[in-house]
């Protein structure tokens, strides 16, 4: 770790506001603009309120877990990956790092898909030819951001702060206008949901994967912790950023039920926020949301690309990824990790050309891939509290409180895996098998056996899952 800390000495050190901007910037992305339609397809007002309470409480426990781990293990950088490694071994830690990295890359593709579908309203040619033109334009944008970030983290983080402010303004305007124009009769009719939404439990369960996607990024300050001026800022930025974004997400969803009936909300094209505001104030409202969306997703893309490259870089510095990923340029940018991140996003972008619904598939897979790293971080917090490691100088009440929070976070994340469904978990295994090549190369560089007996058993389970996933794709019960 000494070498890693020395490497970071020359890096720009960022304070609480910059870390909060990173958390908020990475969380407010494509998902918030799709909330009205996606919630209306699953639940009414009552179910939405319960879903936000469940999701908010669950994600808050995860935010508190990251805050606690940042203070109790200040020696660990890129928290999502590092906590899994220290707690459960190198191979499990590798899966956490690879899964988190892949979720960021797949999530980045959803941004480009949504950008092109939004611009396609004005420029129909973008959506012609089966999406080939849109994919080509997305490719140009993807590599432009690679060049931008390669120029230096200082420039990229400065842009992220500006973009975060710029994209929050249209969302706040939407909430205020929709709340002012809310129709109580429409709101009351949407209270319990429609016949097709099912029981209240089913309504809540149906929204869980949506909330996972929009809350991705709650761990952003933890991932970027090597650049923090004070370690305590990491935890504060995580909790404050989460609470700010939670208030925005819940408000966007609830006020929409007072503008249009559920049947109309559920049929709105994406970005559905544009349709809601257009119905409330006219076409200029839809245009405002469209501009806000473009700023938002580009800012979120920047933040997520930074975090994805950071995970690979720190893992390589700890000799848990191949050494070529540990190289950085004179501006402290992990250039090879950034390149591999951009390449994986490019591959996924090509795959979307063969997908029936590129946006929904990429969104759901992003959420599913992120759940394993979240689950392992929460489980590590449980392990610390149970073994009393790092709690020697604390009161018993402190350990019991943090144990309770970590247990709730763990149970909540297990429930999210259940809500995601077996198909997405198996598709995750399809990614993990070829990704293990990086793990094997790392072990060879260190002159060690590729797998221990326990690691080989885990790898075998993942291979079986990947085979089942591929069979499911061929049989049609798993779709892209």
Task: Characterise the protein shown here.
The chain is an all-alpha fold and 480 residues long. The chain is built from 20 helices and no strands. The chain has helices at residues 2-9, 16-27, 30-42, 45-72, 79-88, 90-122, 132-150, 153-180, 184-189, 200-215, 220-223, 231-256, 262-266, 272-281, 283-317, 335-351, 358-387, 396-420, 422-445, 453-475. Helix 19 crosses helix 20. The longest helix has 35 residues, at 283-317.
Q: What attributes characterize this protein structure?
A:
480 residues, mainly alpha, 78% helix, disordered N terminus
Give the biggest beta sheet. Answer: none
Report strand %. Answer: under 5%
Order of helices and strands: HHHHHHHHHHHHHHHHHHHH
Radius of gyration: 22 Å
Return residue spans where pLDDT drops below 50 for at least 5 consecutive residues.
1-11
* Overall number of strands: 0
Tertiary shape: globular
Task: Please estimate the helix content.
Answer: over 70%
What is the average per-residue confidence, as pLDDT, rounded to a whole number? 79
Q: Helix segment count?
A: 20
End-to-end separation: 41 Å
Structural category is mainly alpha
Summarize the structure in short:
The protein has 480 residues and is an all-alpha fold. Helix content is 78%, strand content 0%.
Secondary structure blueprint with pairings:
Elements lengths: L1 H8 L6 H12 L2 H13 L2 H28 L6 H10 L1 H33 L9 H19 L2 H28 L3 H6 L10 H16 L4 H4 L7 H26 L5 H5 L5 H10 L1 H35 L17 H17 L6 H30 L8 H25 L1 H24 L7 H23 L5
């Amino acid at each position: 770790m000494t070498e890693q800390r020395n490497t970071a000495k020359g890096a720009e050190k960022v304070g609480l506001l910059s870390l909060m901007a990173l958390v908020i910037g990475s969380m407010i992305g494509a998902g918030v603009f799709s909330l009205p339609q996606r919630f209306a397809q699953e639940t009414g007002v009552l179910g939405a309120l319960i879903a936000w309470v469940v999701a908010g409480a669950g994600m808050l426990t995860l935010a508190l877990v990251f805050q606690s781990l940042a203070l109790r293990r200040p020696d660990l950088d890129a928290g999502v990956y590092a906590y899994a490694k220290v707690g459960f071994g190198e191979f499990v830690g590798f899966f956490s790092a690879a899964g988190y990295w892949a979720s960021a890359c797949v999530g980045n593709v959803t941004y480009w898909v949504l950008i092109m579908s939004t611009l396609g309203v004005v420029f129909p040619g973008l959506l012609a030819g089966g999406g080939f033109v849109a994919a080509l334009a997305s490719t140009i944008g993807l590599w432009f951001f690679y060049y931008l970030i390669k120029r230096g983290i200082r420039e990229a983080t400065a842009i992220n702060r500006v973009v975060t402010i710029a994209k929050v303004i249209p969302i706040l305007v939407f909430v205020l206008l929709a709340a002012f124009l809310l129709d109580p009769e429409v709101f009351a009719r949407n209270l319990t949901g429609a016949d097709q939404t099912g029981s209240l439990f089913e309504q809540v369960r149906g929204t869980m994967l949506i909330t996972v996607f929009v809350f991705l990024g709650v761990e952003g300050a933890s991932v970027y912790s090597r650049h923090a001026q004070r370690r305590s800022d990491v935890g504060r930025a995580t909790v404050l950023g989460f609470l700010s974004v939670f208030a925005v997400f819940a408000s966007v969803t609830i006020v929409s039920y007072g503008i249009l009936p559920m049947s109309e909300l559920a049929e709105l094209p994406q970005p559905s926020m544009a349709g809601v505001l257009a119905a409330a104030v006219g076409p200029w409202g839809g245009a405002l949301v469209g501009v806000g969306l473009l700023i938002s997703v580009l800012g979120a893309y920047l933040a997520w690309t930074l975090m994805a490259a950071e995970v690979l870089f720190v893992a390589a510095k700890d000799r848990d990824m191949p050494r070529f990923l540990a190289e950085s340029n004179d501006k402290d940018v992990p250039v090879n990790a950034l390149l591999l991140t951009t390449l994986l996003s490019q591959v996924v972008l090509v795959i979307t050309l063969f997908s029936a619904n590129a946006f929904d598939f990429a969104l759901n897979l992003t959420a599913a891939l992120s759940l394993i790293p979240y689950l392992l971080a929460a489980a590590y917090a449980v392990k610390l509290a149970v073994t009393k490691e790092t709690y020697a100088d604390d009161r018993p009440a402190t350990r019991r409180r943090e144990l309770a929070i970590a247990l709730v976070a763990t149970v909540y994340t297990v429930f999210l895996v259940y809500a995601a469904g077996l198909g997405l978990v198996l598709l995750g295994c399809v990614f993990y098998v070829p990704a293990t090549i990086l793990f094997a190369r790392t072990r060879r560089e260190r002159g060690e056996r590729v797998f221990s007996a326990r690691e080989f058993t885990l790898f075998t389970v993942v291979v079986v899952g990947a085979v089942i996933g591929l069979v499911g794709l061929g049989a049609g019960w798993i779709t892209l």
